Amino acid sequence: MIAVAILAAGRGTRMKSTLPKVVHPLGGRTLVERALDSVESLNPSRRLVIVGYGADRVKAALQHRTDVEFIEQTEQLGTGHAAQQVIPALQNFEGDLLILNGDVPLLRPETLAQLLETHRQQQNAATILTAQLPVPKGYGRVFCDAQNYLQAIIEDRDCNEAQRQNHRINAGVYCFRWSALKGVLPNLSAENDQKEYYLTDAVNFLSPVMAVDVRDHQEISGINDRKQLAEAYQMLQARIKDDWMARGVTLIDPASITIDDTVAIGSDVIIEPQTHLRGNTTIGSDCRIGPGSMVENGIIGDRVSILFSVIRDSTVAADTTIGPYAHLRGQAAVGCDCRIGNFVELKNTRLGDRSNVTHLSYLGDTTTGTQVNIGAGTITANYDGVNKHKTVIGDRTKTGSNSVLVAPLTIGADVNIAAGSTVTENVGDDALVIARARQVVKPGWRLKSKE
Ligand code: UD1
Ligand code: CA
């Protein structure tokens, strides 16, 4: 059995923020969510999150996680004090307790699995994750014998000059035999430079304790200030982009591209500069995305091209061309083999296959059939100032340039709407609609009026 406790009660003073540190977002997910997600593959039977400073904000950030138990640490007297708060909740728990700092968001699941494996194989009282850092400043230093058995962890500020030269640091990731930790937690004292109860002291009380070095020290980067938050984002991006390139995606100018780790991309996709893929986005194969595009929560089919456009919460089927300068939002759904853009906005609109909306249009709350042609400047007037109304357009219908379709409105199949029409009444199938004033020409009018 394994239980997980995430220490997330600290304020994070160095962030200079009114938000608690662990709810700052990093690539679409908060730090505390990332910490929680990194332990998922270990299948923990309990997930405890220690909250204190800004507890309501932290709980709100995790409200979708019904499997989390929150434990209040009303005063933040240190990481050891935070760990003490779990004792009542784990009174009858038997097994191992993995404790993570809530501000270490880049851990790989494999790293945690390896830590747990060593812990169990060696039957340690505790096993801690360590790293050899080029710049160890600020971290607790870890002293071990040649077999990696721990001798001591000493906080940076409690180290003497010689101890500070040690580059092996405490990552803030610990695997404890719970029965052993439970025994020593009540014995912590706050006799140190910060006058805090240190979890690292509990580790110092236990034996045997082993340290396991992480292979890639970037993984254990802790976030204490905005600069480290930005650096962590860069590391995360490098990891994600390297991974997609290894899997057959071309990134042109990777430094200008950002991709959330929740995105899925098919093979032979080309991502052009200044393109951002976010949230629950899926890109099919053989697509060309960008330059200058953002897709957030978008489902994009195969062979789609998207040029200088924004797609949010919408889907685009195969072989469709988007842009330049299109905006799809609010559950827009574009069929296959369509052309959308230049300067076209689709909101909550379903467009049938082989349809075109190619210039200067707004379609909102609209459903169209297949092979529809929406002429340049066509607008659905879907809002009467109070409510939104729907427009329905049948197969093969063509709207003339600059037509206004005043919703609620249903237009049948094979209808032609004359340019400049303002259509306010429903139209059946197979009709020509002219809804505009007739042109009046008065020859010689200027001359006459001058006389
Ligand atoms: C801690 C470790 C240090 C390690 C580093 C790794 C201790 C004493 N030191 O230092 O050895 O190198 O992490 O990143 O543990 N928290 C609470 N309640 C509290 C205090 C803190 O929940 O009363 C939480 C914070 O929200 C944070 C985590 O514990 O998520 C770590 O606290 P922080 O103050 O950042 O510890 P460090 O000084 O970084
Ligand atoms: Ca920290």
Describe this structure in words.
This protein is α/β, with parallel strands linked by helices and 451 residues long. It folds into two domains: 2-220, Spore Coat Polysaccharide Biosynthesis Protein SpsA, Chain A, CATH 3.90.550; 246-433, 3 Solenoid (UDP N-Acetylglucosamine Acyltransferase, domain 1). It contains nine helices and 39 strands. The strands form seven sheets. An eleven-stranded parallel sheet has the order 12-15-18-20-22-25-28-31-34-37-39, covered by helices on one side. Strands 13, 14, 16, 17, 19, 21, 23, 24, 26, 27 and 29 form an eleven-stranded parallel sheet that branches. The longest helix is centred in the middle third of the chain and has 21 residues, at 226-246. It is elongated. It starts with a strand and ends with a helix. Calcium ion (CA) binds at residues 101, 103, 222, 224.
Low-confidence stretches: none
Taking Cα atoms only, what radius of gyration do you get, to the nearest Å?
30 Å
Number of helices: 9
Largest sheet: 11 strands, parallel
Distance between the first and last residues' Cα: 102 Å
Q: CATH topology of the largest domain, anyone?
A: Spore Coat Polysaccharide Biosynthesis Protein SpsA, Chain A
Indicate the proportion of strand residues.
Answer: 25-35%
Question: Which bin fits the share of residues in helices?
Answer: 10-25%
How many domains in all?
2
The molecules bound to the chains, other than polymers, are: uridine-diphosphate-N-acetylglucosamine, calcium ion
**Morphology:** elongated
Query: From the coordinates shown, what is the CATH architecture of the largest domain?
Result: Alpha-Beta Complex
Mean pLDDT: 96
CATH class of the largest domain: Alpha Beta
- Class based on secondary structure composition and strand pairing: alpha/beta
